[in-house]
Amino acid sequence: MRTTTGWQAAGPTALRRAALERRDLRPDDIAVQVDYCGVCHTDLHALHAWDQHTRAPLVPGHEFTGVVTGTGAVVTTFSVGDRVAVGNIVDSCGVCVMCEAGQENFCHSFPTLTYGGTDRQDGSTTLGGYSREYVVRDTFAYPLPSGLDPAAAAPLMCAGVTVWEPLRSLGVGPGSRVAVAGLGGLGHLAVKMAVALGATTTVISRTRDKLDDARKLGAHDLVDSTDSRRMATARDTFDVVIDTIPAPHDLAPYLKLVTMDGTLSLLGYLGPVTVEATDLLIGRKKLSSAGSGGRPATAEMLQFCADNGIAADIEVLPSSQVDTALDRLRRNDVRYRFVLDMSDLD
């Protein structure tokens, strides 16, 4: 086994520095020195749900960039020294209909997650990117284009591809009218990508105080969701509404914003929802969702971001301040994504 250092759960609100074991390289593995790892709301949820008495060790982190430090015997795609990015999926069955379609994120036997997953060969629990080294199958690592800053690119591997997939699958492009509800880690990247795709893009927010931020990101307008007259004026306006709001909320006001045959894509809150059928019937509106991305879409997203100068707006903290980052994230005190610098684990 290989050894490295990382941040392991010590309770629902804290992590401790710990020695971690990584598997020896299989023929199709690469070893990655993790340089930057994004901090996702999923990490908060995983820590909150973790029970030290009944579960395997938990090391969060599923959006990271780094440098290849070793390769397995049959790896030809990567060489030592290459810059790479890894997201929240590190394996899949490879043979189901979804995997064959390049949608490994929808693998029928469930994809192997970067942390908290089960390795398909030895049954061990995967430990995430809050660490100095990660070992991953070469097909689930991606070359990091030279135009992308490695710190600001890390969140693209989760938040970025999560919003990219619906924007692409729903055909957003020049002439499209897109609204993004919620201006956080997901939402700010959805705005940047929609604008770069050529869409007229509007932010939906509870306050107009975010208008300047929205415009700096490239948005053309902001609609205050608490202003009933403004919401009524925007009715039946948008081809696509990307809903990144992370808490339970009424979908009806957002469905009303969708134009005929348009789509509300629910990305932020993935729990139970209640929808009146007539809110879909009137205008033949659609409700969809998405999560993560397959390998082709992830590679396409990275290149698109490099070509268009898109990266996350981040605040970088040394990994030793991971508890601070998580506490501030709980309070939504970040604009728009925390990224941990893992070099202090050396």
Protein model, in words:
The chain has 11 helices and 17 strands. The protein is an alpha/beta fold. The strands form 4 sheets. Strands 3, 4, 5, 8, 9, 16 and 17 form a 7-stranded mixed sheet that branches. Helix 6 links the parallel strand 11 and strand 12 (221-224). It is globular and about 60 Å long. It starts with a strand and ends in a 5-residue tail after the last strand.
Number of helices: 11
Label the overall shape. globular
Structural class, by secondary structure, is alpha/beta
State the low-pLDDT regions, or none: none
pLDDT average, as an integer? Answer: 96
Distance between the termini: 19 Å
Percentage of residues in strands: 25-35%
Give descriptors for this structure.
seven-stranded mixed sheet; 346 residues; 29% strand; 11 helices; six-stranded parallel sheet; alpha/beta
